[in-house]
Hints:
It is a single chain. With 116 residues, this protein is mainly alpha-helical. The protein has one domain (2-115). Helix content is 83%, strand content 0%. The chain is built from six helices and no strands.
Amino acid sequence: MVACSTIIQVIAQLLIKAGTEQLPADPTLSQTAIGMFTILPLFAGYACYGLFTIVMVLALRHGELSMTFPILALSYVWVAGASAIWLHESLNAAKIAGVAVIVGGVAVLGRSDKSA
Length: 116
């Protein structure tokens, strides 16, 4: 469930990014709020965040927060890859190092749970 929620979170972030490109150059707070309901990608992105919240409630009900929450950090890994592929954003050495640290941290936490 947590892995699924990270994918939902990545989709939400990609949709929100796409939706922000349809906002005016320097949107006011009210223009942004209205855009959240009138710009389809923005609306869909925030709807995905709602779905993400529901899935996380269910995951947390059956899992430990100390293991569930670090797995959410993998969304940073997926976002880095997805933004490089679909948004053509750069994936430089610093970003790759950060992704490696996140993956390593999640792996360490996963192994520590098995040895307890």
